[in-house]
Amino acid sequence: MRSFSRNGMIAGTPTRKLLLLTLLVTSLCQAPAVFAIDAEVRGVRGELATNIRNYLQSLDIPGNAETQTYSYSAEVTQRVKDALKPYGYYEPEISVSFRNREEVIVDVDRGKPVRVRSVVVRVEGEAENDEPFQEALDANPLADLEGKRLLHTPYDTLKTRLTGLALERGYFDARYRQSRIEVHPWEHAAYISLVFESGERYRFGDIFVSGSQIREERLRRMAPFDPDDRYLATDVALYSQRLGDAGWFRSISVRPRLDERSRQSPSSMVTSSPDARVEGEDPDSGGRDFQDDLAVQERPQRATVPIEVSVTPEDRHKFETGIGYSTDVGPRVNFGWNMPWLNDQGHSLNNDLSLSGPEQTLVGEYNVPLANPARDNYYMRYGFKNTDRSESDTRSFESSVSFGREWRFENDWIQNAYLRTTYEDFTQGDEKDQVVLFIPGMSWTRTRTDETRFPMWGDRQDILVEGSSDAWGSDANFLRTRLNSQWVRSLGANNRFVARATAGATSTDDFSQVPPSLRFFTGGDSSVRGYEYETIAPENSDGDLLGGKHLLVGSLEYQRQVANNWWGATFVDTGNAFNDWWPDDLKTSAGVGVRWISPVGPVRLDIAHPFDSEENSWRLHFGIGPEF
């Protein structure tokens, strides 16, 4: 008698187990194999032949099937007919023969094509006067089809475009009152009718927020639309982006409260339009009066759509560490402690500590968002910096606190107005002093890139104007400005050009009172390569660097891709820091380099020759990180 073990396995003698295993393997080996069809198409070429092969590719024939039987020959014939219909051939003559189960020969006589007799395309309802719909009709791919061979693709393209516009622009009651390609094979004729009835355009309704640790009213004010504004899907996407930019949430979902819609994934084959109907053989039995089969959605009482916002809070404390290296500062360690939100108003606090041999820096920012946190905020910034650089003859300790207001404009410019208080104890060359400064200033910044890690197009502009005066208690009188501009442009996919320029100027009656942090120096990885970091500046009689009142630096670089993530570079740099209104000379260097596009940004290795250096030597420069 057969018995079963506790785990469900058949218990018995080893011989019985071996017999059962043998029977199982034998039955699996006897299962019929399945073969995919490889088609040789004769009689047609190009896109017709390709589409026939695409249609037949998904046909699988079991290994034990008789390929010459009617069932598989008929199936191949029907698929070939379906592949020809999107191109207007409805009455082809087809011959099918199998070499074996995996190869079939298809001889095709496409026959006389169906030609378009008439085209009716119309948009009705409120969308009739909506500009994007008019543009879609003006670019109507069906307009030039009348009198020509029927193609399904232009019809489907226009229908998809109108449907997409309806979803994007809030015509949620839209329907196709007529949407049909009517084919009369006996006439070799087709009649196209596409009548789109948009209904009323919906407007934005209330915003419903769930899961937020931030006040809901603050999140509502971040929306780029007001209640009763006309619906736009791009505004919904922009709203989601603004919530993400605030940094308060780990996950964000912003969507209109509509029924879920299913979408079909695109196919590699040209499919016949589902609206194409072939009328019967009797000419008298086919008419061209028809209505669309789509059901009409029930209209709500109010043409508004509420917006649902669902968020998950970001961690209250986030810590980051990093290491780096550059020839300017050597090895560097970074620590970050960020608090994306401190309270239900969305205040945030960020702290960053950077440690290297010549420089140790601690900076922090307390941020207070205003009515539109994505655009406006107040901030308090504070920091400490200790510098000891023998190559630039600079030793200083600096502490500062600033209070400011930031505006982010729609044109990507960021404007800052601030008042900074700075204490600096410094030694620069043979000059020593301690100064307390109260510095009001304004700055404007704009960064545009197509990709942050290694952009092929982008630019960055920085403008700064600030000053100090003993009239409000400062130890120095000066007016200072600095302009930075950097550009990346490309020619094709393998040629990249990088240009940058920096200009600075200071007006003061006692330059010795201006601390080193506000003087101009140049030279190093990101200015004039071939020279040591910040070693180009006016000197005293002993050859000690003092820094300059003014600055002028320019660079032009050409990069060429040599492998997948490897680029070669050649460049020319020039510049100087000086005290007169124009430099007596500009220090110039040239060199070559290598760029490796790593996951964290480009790794740069340059070797540069300084033409104006007395040592007349080469200098190596190394750095990691994005350019903007």
Automatic annotation (TrEMBL):
<feature type="compositionally biased region" description="Polar residues">
    <location>
        <begin position="264"/>
        <end position="274"/>
    </location>
</feature>
<feature type="domain" description="TamA POTRA">
    <location>
        <begin position="40"/>
        <end position="109"/>
    </location>
</feature>
<dbReference type="GO" id="GO:0009306">
    <property type="term" value="P:protein secretion"/>
</dbReference>
<protein>
    <recommendedName>
        <fullName>Translocation and assembly module subunit TamA</fullName>
    </recommendedName>
</protein>
<comment type="similarity">
    <text>Belongs to the TamA family.</text>
</comment>
<dbReference type="InterPro" id="IPR039910">
    <property type="entry name" value="D15-like"/>
</dbReference>
<feature type="domain" description="Bacterial surface antigen (D15)">
    <location>
        <begin position="324"/>
        <end position="628"/>
    </location>
</feature>
<keyword id="KW-0732">Signal</keyword>
<dbReference type="InterPro" id="IPR035243">
    <property type="entry name" value="TamA_POTRA_Dom_1"/>
</dbReference>
<dbReference type="Pfam" id="PF17243">
    <property type="entry name" value="POTRA_TamA_1"/>
</dbReference>
<comment type="subunit">
    <text>Interacts with TamB to form the translocation and assembly module (TAM).</text>
</comment>
<keyword id="KW-0998">Cell outer membrane</keyword>
<feature type="compositionally biased region" description="Basic and acidic residues">
    <location>
        <begin position="276"/>
        <end position="291"/>
    </location>
</feature>
<keyword id="KW-0472">Membrane</keyword>
<dbReference type="GO" id="GO:0097347">
    <property type="term" value="C:TAM protein secretion complex"/>
</dbReference>
<feature type="region of interest" description="Disordered">
    <location>
        <begin position="259"/>
        <end position="303"/>
    </location>
</feature>
<dbReference type="GO" id="GO:0009279">
    <property type="term" value="C:cell outer membrane"/>
</dbReference>
<keyword id="KW-0812">Transmembrane</keyword>
<feature type="signal peptide">
    <location>
        <begin position="1"/>
        <end position="36"/>
    </location>
</feature>
<dbReference type="InterPro" id="IPR000184">
    <property type="entry name" value="Bac_surfAg_D15"/>
</dbReference>
<dbReference type="Pfam" id="PF01103">
    <property type="entry name" value="Omp85"/>
</dbReference>
<keyword id="KW-1134">Transmembrane beta strand</keyword>
